[in-house]
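Good morning C.,

I know you're traveling, so I'll keep this short. The sequence:
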Amino acid sequence: MTLLTLSEQQQVAEAIDRVERETDAELVTVLAEQADDYRYIPLLWAGLIALVVPGAALFFTTALSAWQLLLVQWATFIVLALAFRLPSLTTRLIPRQVRHWRACNLARRQFIECNLHHTEGGTGILIFVSEAERYVEILVDRGIASRIDNGAWEAIVANFTERVHDGQVLEGFLGCIEACGSLLKQHLPVTQVRNQLPNRLVMI
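The tokens, ready to paste straight into the viewer:
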């Protein structure tokens, strides 16, 4: 995970504060290391490959006994189950749709847990990043959704996702917050000073 230092986290908090001084939106940012531990993935792939190994071994040679084939199968399962636990390998074994589905679910849970659905006027907005999945999503409550079309966030998300892929998480957050602020100031300008939710970066 790209750990953000305290000073970098403070930069994110200050960027949020600048946006909230000029708009009625309540903005929360969340950075997750990964959306799931995917513990079942190494075992699943190791098991599938181990099932194929005896048949493949018999195809190339008949010199192995049933007991030897069983040992080869067990050894294959154990070695691959351990090897596939390496984060760099585990991520490659997970289909993109599965990774994004898990990250999407976590984003929605965070929206609820951060109380973004209880803001005055329904003006909560979540900027969510799951780094392992290279996933970025912006979720807004009804007060913002009624004024800004969902398609307006797509370019912001795409740019942030590219930054995350390049390991530029801080730059991505700052650029995303600024872009969201520009959009929110047009459609949801400040009418009263309020700060219902913490401005800090939530790291999970």
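Safe travels,
E.
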